[in-house]
Amino acid sequence: MTLLTDARARAILGLHLCGSFCASLTAPFIPFYIVQELGHPPWKISIYSALAILLTVTLNRAFAARLDSGHRFAPLVNASIAGYMTALISVLIWPSYWTLITVGVLGFSLSGSSLSTMYSFGRISAERYGFDITAFNAWLRAMTSLGWMMGPALAFFVAGQWGASWTFCFALGAALIWAVLRWYAMPRDARAEAADKTPPDSAYAERALWLAVGACLLFSAAHVLCTSALPLFYVREAGLPAYAPGLSFSIKTGTEIVMILTTPALLRRLAPLSVLTLSGGLGLCAFLMLSQVTGVTAMVFGAALEGAYYGLFAGVSMTYVQNFANGRMARANALYVNSLFIGALVAGPSVGMIAQFASFQTAILAACLPMVCALIVLAATNRIRRLAGTGHVKPESSG
User: What DSSP character marks residue 4?
Assistant: First the structure.
């Protein structure tokens, strides 16, 4: 029986897709809303973004600690949904920047914390229902990408047709569906087993976990450096038509989802560390190719290569980090998600600085630096992997 023929698997994937879709409706739209609709200068976006990432990272750690103590999943996802709806209603009733950086940023950060919670719930569900863990992780990650492929385009389309307030109304409707799916897909008593407070081999596993998280952070920084610089590079420096950034994004995301779903088959032949190393090598090739684009045809090939490397990373990285959870699965998932947020936080402002003093092409090439560092970290992890093979470290089963 395949995953998609199991009603429980479909319900969990649907719940996660809806949560990712809700987050993607608002997260990319808020910066546009601050500048275009509220009339504030662009630097105020940085204040909101910094608050949002700081709160999300903190809440992820707090939620993970509760889950690893045996707390139920449902109340935490309920809090995420309630926070999201409260933020939307507040912005609709009191549309101001101060609403955004108080009630809004707290509510949207609560909703962002559902990502790592759902990854933990998916892992526990896979173990209990007998799903292939690697395949189910890949499907969960694919649902994240699919939600983010659909949400931003719909948010800006609705705003362009009917106004910004209708985007928030649309998101509120999606949140109601999210709440219904939570009731249907997540049992009220579902919880993880309480983690052992003194897990075996903790020193080795802790070192391996932080190396794995560090590699993911560097991958995230490299990815954001490239993707943030590409649209303006295409139009301003490469002289491509205005539709080029949208076409590139669609090709990249489509390829990414396909590659995510092929990673379970690849992991039957290769270790996660080997797949991540392959991803890093392809990433370097992608950055070098994309930085030299001068026409649409080259852009298409570059976007496909970008989607291929990031799809491999996305499909494998969560399982890779979970392998070093050492009994604290929720904490491992929270650290994984936080590494992606922090990598983006570091890389995002760097694009503007590099472009200011050099060019957007240079910003794309600069993505090679964190990617090379990520490959070095992965190489350093080989020692931990060898220790695990001799029994000094006992990684979690990957299914």
Answer: G
CA angle 50, 56, 57 (to 5 degrees): 90
Question: Can you tell me the distance from the alpha carbon of 129 to that of 248, in angstroms, rounded to the nearest whole number?
Answer: 38
143 and 174 part of one domain: yes
Is 194 domain-assigned? no
Which residues, other chains included, contact 98 with Cβ-Cβ below 8 Å and sequence gap of 6+? Answer: none
Residue identified by tokens 């947020």 is 341
* Helical ranges in the chain per DSSP H: 7-26, 29-32, 43-68, 73-93, 97-99, 105-112, 114-129, 133-162, 164-185, 202-232, 244-267, 272-290, 296-322, 329-357, 360-366, 368-389
Is residue 75 domain-shared with residue 220, that is, in the same domain? no
CATH number at residue 169: 1.20.1250.20
Tally the domains of the chain: 2
Give every CB contact of residue 176 below 8 A, 6+ residues apart in sequence. 85
pLDDT digits (tens, 9 = 90+) for 204-224: 778 888 999 999 999 999 999
Q: What is the pLDDT of residues 10-38, one digit of tens each?
A: 999 999 999 999 998 998 888 888 888 88
**CA 82 vs CA 89, 144, 155: distances in Å:** 11, 20, 20
